[in-house]
Amino acid sequence: MTKVPVQFVLNGEEKAEFVESGATLLRALREKIGDTSVKAGCQQGTCGSCAVVVDGELRLSCLTLAERCGGCSIETTGGLAHGEVLHPLQRAFNEGFATQCGFCTPGMIMAAKALLDRNPQPSREDVVEAISGNICRCTGYEPIIQAILAAARANSLSAA
Amino acid sequence: MGLALKTYPTLTAAGEALAAQATARYIGGGTLVVRDANEGDLRFDTYVSASDPELSAIAVTDGQATIGAGVTMAGIVREPALGFLAPAAKAVGGPAIRNMATVGGNLFAPTPYGDFTVALVALDASLDIEGAAVPVTDFLTGRETIYARALVRAVSFRLPAEGSFRFAKVSRIRPKGLSIVTIAAVVEERSGAITSARIAYGCMADRPIRAPAVERALIGKARTKDGIAAALAVATEGTSPPTDAIASAWYRSEVLPVHLGRLLLSP
Fold first, then answer.
1. pLDDT tens digit string along A112-132?
2. Statement to judge: residues A69 and A107 lie in one domain
3. CA–CA separation, A73 vs A150, rounded Å?
4. CA distance A62 to A75
5. Are A103 and A145 within one domain?
6. What pLDDT score does B109 carry?
């Protein structure tokens, strides 16, 4: 089976791996690099659980070829916390009971991060739109929306 | 089984590679073809792509827009000169899909997908396929036959007159859900009467279609409830909507005139 080299920056760290030709970024991250914060859900582009940020843009790792990510900067939920200090989004999800089974949470958080990185003070409508490609079967979405808005408020307080 | 990825500097070279290998498929944003691979589609073993920057270019000059086939839906939304098309681009998927899905790929998206193409049909767009100008409706007719392996370089259309373009995607889930019916319209008026109309539907057939009976019935009429009544009466003429998990054919036919009426009467 043909292996191809891929090199990218994952959560600030240089990574260089040989992956199976045609492998998705999802498989490369989970099976080669061991970043299992990225979840393999539908693998059809429908559920959003595999969402990662590539060069500042939200993407679905299940539909992205690893080979096309050469030289890119990739962010996943696995790189958000600093040691035991959670990212404001992780803290808000935890405190706001925005996670139940937890399977959608990494994708939700990356969709929210992509939003807050470009729009630190989003409206509720902005938040709903930002997570519209992510499916949650537990929470009914409202705690997730509130957690993202809370994280935005916390960010603005810490920036003040 | 691994799939090879072969990337070429030009679309022409990618086209030659595609022609030389029946088991190769062109990959744009990947939202259709990688999905097929993930589903276990064994009919192809090679992805072919082109890195030509021209594929990602948007040019709007002298009232004419040309959009590279590799431009993403997010790219359309970001382009100020194509502001009227933003609602159609935003109708495609969620934010992650819109960062990946391309204009060229949307042309090949099977029903109930392909909402952006409905807008292109209403705009009477022309496709650049190997240097030939192909009307989008001709392409759609031959999508599974003569154009099944066509490489689209760009789509072009005349910019519609200010305020003449309307678009609606009707779905059960907002803001993101599959289409029950998608409608795009370019309706021009003068002195209170409709002078030209192009109406396109998504999910009212197995591919986006025009609604010529509606278009004929609108000419010369006022864009009022009474003025569009005759057009709404023939709204379903020539349609053959699918029954799928989203809606039955019967339901689509029942709600189409309601949504067409709302769209035509919208400010």
1. 999 999 999 999 999 999 999
2. no
3. 27
4. 15
5. yes
6. 97
| B108 Cα to chain A: minimum distance (Å) | 16
Q: Which residues of B16-43 are buried (b: 16+ CB within 10 A; e: fewer)?
A: ebbeeeeebbbbbbbbbbbbebbeeeee
What is the per-residue pLDDT for B175? 85
ipTM of this complex prediction, to 2 decimal places: 0.96
pLDDT single digits (tens) B218-249: 999 999 999 999 999 999 999 999 999 999 99
CATH number (domain holding residue B184): 3.30.390.50
> Per the structure, how many domains does chain A have?
2
Torsion of CA A56, A59, A64, A70, to 10 degrees: 10
Helix (H) or strand (E) holding B106: helix B103-108
Q: Are residues A73 and A94 in the same domain?
A: no
Which residue in the block uniquely carries the two structure tokens 């949504």? B259
CA distance B121 to A86: 49
Domain-embedded: residue B232: yes
pLDDT for residue A157 is more than 90: no
- Cβ contacts (< 8 Å) between B93 and chain A: which residues? 45, 133
Q: Could you tell me the sign of the dihedral formed by the alpha carbons of B251, B254, B258, B263, in that order?
A: positive
A153 CB-near residues (< 8 Å, 6+ apart): none
Given a cut of 70, the residues of chain B with pLDDT beneath it are: 1
Compute the distance between CA of residue B185 and CA of residue B214 in angstroms, rounded to an integer. 11
At which of A49, A79, A109 does a domain end?
A79
Domain that holds residue B229: 165-265
Partner-chain residue, chosen from A21, A43, A58, that has the shortest CB–CB distance to B95 = A58
Average pLDDT (A61-87) is 97
| Alpha-carbon span B153 to B131, nearest angstrom | 8
Helix (H, G, I), strand (E, B) or coil at B202: strand
What residues make up the domain containing A44? 3-79
Count the domains in chain B.
2
Same domain, A39 and A74: yes
CA-nearest residue to B176 within chain A is: A132
Q: Of A54, A79, A104, which marks where a domain is finished?
A: A79
- A108 and A145 share one domain: yes
Nearest CA in chain B to A58: B96
The pTM (predicted TM-score) of the whole model is 0.96
